[in-house]
Amino acid sequence: MQPRGIYGGIILRVGVSMLTDVQLRRLTPAEKPYKRADTGGLFILVQPNGSRLWRMKYRFGGREKLLSFGAYPEVSLAAARDARDAARSELRADRDLDSNDRPRARPILVVSGHGQERVYSLKRDCL
């Protein structure tokens, strides 16, 4: 059994190993999706269809969130780690990572036949 440490009331395994490229290539699909953790919230999600997707779990504003970096091998292990580091620096600067991905209201200008103008707003998803 590996030694354990306590950090902030959470029990952690000491000496958690990072993923390697050989381990990533050997990941095979299973009946259900499963995850293999790297470090800093980064993990790879292996889907039953064989796709391997990079994800990062993080918390912002007291809520747990999930960020996607792309599919392996299109996004390499080094590129995923670089993206994770960039995302963590944004979080340290207190910036929400998914703020650009949220549906926003966009003003739409509609001109009636009588020369009157009205501004409506619709969600981006509805356009």
Question: Care to give the gist of this entry?
Answer:
This protein has helices at 21-26, 77-92, and strands at 4-7, 10-13, 34-37, 42-46, 52-60, 63-72, 105-111, 117-123. It has two helices and eight strands; from the N terminus they run ββαββββαββ.
Topology:
Layout: E1 4-7, E2 10-13, H1 21-26, E3 34-37, E4 42-46, E5 52-60, E6 63-72, H2 77-92, E7 105-111, E8 117-123
Antiparallel strand pairs: 1-2, 3-4, 4-5, 5-6, 7-8
Strand numbers in spatial order across the main sheet: 3-4-5-6
Q: Helix segment count? A: 2
Characterize the biggest β-sheet: 4 strands, antiparallel
**Average pLDDT value?**
77
- The chain-level structural class is alpha+beta
Order of helices and strands: EEHEEEEHEE
Helix content: 10-25%
| Coarse morphology | globular
Rounded to the nearest angstrom, the distance between the terminal CA atoms is 56 Å
Key traits:
127 residues; alpha+beta; four-stranded antiparallel sheet; 2 helices; 8 strands; globular; disordered C terminus
Account of the protein in words:
Strands 3-4-5-6 form a four-stranded antiparallel β-sheet, covered by helices on one side. Helix content is 17%, strand content 39%. The chain is of the alpha+beta class. A hairpin with a 5-residue loop joins strand 4 and strand 5. The N and C termini lie far apart (56 Å). The longest helix is centred in the middle third of the chain and has 16 residues, at 77-92. The model is unreliable at 5-11, 102-112 and 117-127 (pLDDT under 50).
